[in-house]
Specification:
- The structure is a single chain.
- The protein has 6 helices and 4 strands.
- It is of the alpha/beta class and 157 residues long.
- It has one domain: Metalloproteases ("zincins"), catalytic domain (Collagenase (Catalytic Domain)), CATH 3.40.390.30.
- Helix 1 links the parallel strand 1 and strand 2.
- Helix 1 packs across helix 5, helix 4 crosses helix 5 and helix 5 crosses helix 6.
- The longest helix has 17 residues.
Length: 157
């Protein structure tokens, strides 16, 4: 498959640099998870705090802004069976608040690029069925996220 990710903008201007980074990160995620030969792709929408708040309220019944939302199309157990699809299929959708990325990058003392890359990886692993509710699951998810970021030489700070 030629394209692993479709980037869309909701009430934001298109940004080629964002797209380059997102494509690089998703390609690495697919590589690490051995999905690069699958017909799976991800849809990523970059948007405003207002839009992500509306989506959070609509789909999670949480009336507040957040940084990233993930909408998986498959259960964790189903993903291993998706490597030999006949047709292209969405692994899921990720929605990212660019404003929150900017604020969190400043708050955590690292670059916008690092924070955006982290949001993409974090969303990807939610699509893969990972979560961070239980401490052990959180640790496992963080290790996977850091593995991707480190392999791209994207570090904190």
């Amino acid at each position: 498959m030629s394209k692993l990710v479709e980037v869309e903008y909701l009430d934001l201007k298109e940004n080629v640099e964002y797209e380059k980074l997102i494509n690089k990160v998703i390609s690495k995620c697919f590589n690490i998870e051995n999905l690069e030969d699958s017909k799976l792709y991800i849809s990523i929408t970059l948007t405003t705090p207002e839009n992500i708040r509306k989506l959070n309220k609509k789909f999670r019944n949480v009336d507040k802004e957040t940084d990233v939302l993930s909408f998986p199309m498959f259960e964790k157990e189903e993903i291993s069976n998706l490597k030999n699809l006949e047709y292209e299929e969405a692994l899921g959708d990720i929605v990212i608040s660019v404003d929150r990325v900017e604020k969190q990058a400043e708050e955590y003392g690292h670059s916008f690029e690092r924070e955006l890359a982290y949001m993409v990886v974090h969303g990807f692993y939610h699509l893969m069925g990972e979560d961070h509710i239980e401490e052990n699951d959180k640790k496992q998810m963080r290790e996977k996220e850091e593995k991707v970021l480190e392999s791209l030489n994207i570090f904190r700070g």
